[in-house]
Amino acid sequence: MSAAGRTVGRHTRTDNPRLARMSLPSEIPEIVWPPLYQVRQAALQALLQQLEQIERAPLTEIIAGQEQQLQVLNNYLYQFSPAHRQRLVAAGLDPSQPLTLEGLRQLPPIRRRDVQSAGQTLYCSQVPQAHLPIAETHTSGSSGEPVAVRRTQVNQLFWLAHTMRDHLWWQRDRMARLASVRGSLPQTHMQQDNWGPPASLLGPSGVAHAFSVHLDTAPLAHELAKADPHYLLIYPTALQDLLRHLRLHGGGLPALRQIRCIGETLSEELRSAAREQLGVEIVDSYSSQEVGIIALQCPTTGLYHIMADNLIVEILDDAGHACATGEVGEVVVSDLHNFATPLLRYAIGDHAEVGPPCSCGRNLPTLRRILGRSRNMVRYPDGSRRWPDLGFVGYRKVAPVQQYQVVQHSLEEIEVRLVVERALTDAEQSAISQIILESLAHPFCLSFRYFADSLPRGPGGKFEEFVCLCD
């Protein structure tokens, strides 16, 4: 038995004195760390207080809490998820023994295809009453492998708490005006007199506008100018289009204090462009539909703090070993609080770089950067892969390019998709080809395809600048 805790009835008795001091009895069955409460506002407020304690606790205490919750979770999943039970047995783990962090690492990672093929057998046949209701989340399918995951009100509570943590870390003025550009709105523009949850659960907040990411850039710029927000939440590629429009046609967002980016990989070039054109900084976050918020950017150092109070996040190399600080590997996530869909060692398809301990005083582990999905890597004929540096910054120096996307169809064929201000000359197209081929260091066969207004976005409104479609 691990020193983290022993299951006693509905609760777990902890042998860690620091955990014992911080923990009141949880009102939600099967959740022992951190303890949760029933009333929504009270639950959110109490969880935020717990999270503030956890982020400042020694890392050893955070790890002990993770293992304590993992044991309770695994005991439940073994009883009610046939697919999880089969997975434990296949890995040679004794289900009668508590699942330790060491034992967890014996489970081979599961991937989107595994979730798809498991179907209903993955889901738990019953969920603790206090965790209800259940909502089914469908991923956008940007990976090409859309999946459906069931999540409970406990998972939603952690999403709200981590969103609120982000507001608190960055000391945002909740009475200010907020505008968001999102992928799945029932109409192109919605307005309400508060920010909505979680901010509205904890007190008054300012006016909020929401705009569809499918709105053309010109009308979006017009509507944003009318809304005159202090804070803007937006996809990176939508922001890139907005900055391009403002550069070409003039205008700005004079009241803007900060931009928050979600949903896509954020480049340093875009951070610099926002700083230069709008005079504000971009704050990034890292999340997925399946497991919620994974990491938040630190206001002190810019590193990404992992939400270790809810998730165990591993960065693994090609051999499945843990990456060291500064190394890049595959992101594998274990959700400690989903009692509807077992997601232990779930490879979400992203790659990230392991970060160092942060100097801000928070002991949550860090990522230095998020690089994107495996399908955003170039494949070479010799079997190697690497992250593409396609020289995007140089395109506008040689041609009037407004938007771009590069798609690899085979090991030798790459399609360049462009939106341009006017037809390119042969010399301009040749110059772009030279930039791409020099950046890739391989003589790929390039073809060009032009679009009139904008390049199509993927499901959910997301956009990828490079996509590899090679099997």
UniProtKB/TrEMBL annotation:
Domain AMP-dependent synthetase/ligase, residue spans: 37-335
InterPro entries to which the protein is assigned, alphabetical: AMP-dep_synth/lig_dom, ANL_N_sf, CapK_Type1_Caps_Biosynth
Annotated segments matching region Disordered: 1-21
Alphabetically ordered keywords of this record: Ligase
Single GO MF descriptor: ligase activity
Keyword Disulfide bond attached: no
Family annotation (SUPFAM superfamilies): Acetyl-CoA synthetase-like (SSF56801)
Statement: the UniProt record of this protein carries the keyword Nucleotide-binding: no
PANTHER family: CAPSULAR POLYSACCHARIDE BIOSYNTHESIS PROTEIN
Stated name of the protein: Phenylacetate-CoA ligase
Annotated source species: Aquipseudomonas alcaligenes (Pseudomonas alcaligenes)
